[in-house]
Amino acid sequence: MASPMPPPGARLMLVFTLTPQLRPEMAAEAVRAGDVAAVVLRLPEGGAAAGLPLREVAEAIQRQDAAVLVEGSDGMATAAGLDGVHVSDPRNLAATVRSLKPQSIVGAGGIDTRHDAMEAGESGADYVFFGSLDPWDRAFPQVLDFVAWWAEVFEVPCVGLAASLDEAEELARAGADFVVLAEALVADGGAAAVAAARARLASVEAQP
């Protein structure tokens, strides 16, 4: 199992849906291409994990010193030796925190309002995620506004989802601790997209 989530900073996170086509070496190559702190693995629609390369993909990612989270299933995270859970339904957040903390990472997603965000931050979650793992479900200006507000006021790390390199750079400028690259952005030539995103984040860090 990888070490806990690294200290906050302008770092990347990735999203992969578990399918028979997701090869461990492909996921590892994408992680190696940039300063990737964590990867969120999603189950395909229907949620069945049987026959999917969960453990193989997770181990390949963890060997690159990145944490591996699964969306929604604390039981699966424990059984597969993962580092934690990304909770997309706020109704499940409190129970997941009680079940997994402090041994595992718990991320809070599914946030629609500032009140929801503050409740998530007070829950004991390790990060507050603005946006959606399906980026078309959230307008980017709203995500950017949430990140800028949170980064200025709160200490719990905030995460924003970027569907383009320009969005990744904007989130870094707004103070996001972690930038999640939408899965579609890294679907083809994932390593190149990750390297390009990391260069954008580095350029923000280099500016006074």
Topology:
Blueprint: E1 11-17, H1 24-32, E2 36-42, H2 54-62, E3 67-71, H3 74-79, E4 84-87, H4 93-100, E5 105-108, H5 114-122, E6 127-130, H6 140-153, E7 158-162, H7 165-174, E8 178-181, H8 183-186, H9 190-206
Provide an overview of this structure.
The protein has 208 residues and is an alpha/beta fold. The protein has a single domain, classed as TIM Barrel (Alpha-Beta Barrel). The chain is 41% helix and 19% strand. It has nine helices and eight strands. The chain has helices at 24-32, 54-62, 74-79, 93-100, 114-122, 140-153, 165-174, 183-186, 190-206, and strands at residues 11-17, 36-42, 67-71, 84-87, 105-108, 127-130, 158-162, 178-181. The protein has an eight-stranded parallel beta barrel, surrounded by seven helices. Strand 4 (84-87), helix 4 (93-100) and strand 5 form a beta-alpha-beta unit. It is globular. The termini are far apart. The relative contact order is 0.16.
In angstroms, what is the radius of gyration? 16 Å
The total count of strands amounts to: 8
Largest sheet: 8 strands, parallel, barrel
Find the CATH topology. TIM Barrel
Task: Give a short synopsis of this structure.
The protein is of the alpha/beta class and 208 residues long. Helix content is 41%, strand content 19%.
Q: Which terms summarize this structure?
A:
TIM Barrel, 8 strands, single chain, alpha/beta, 41% helix, 208 residues, 19% strand
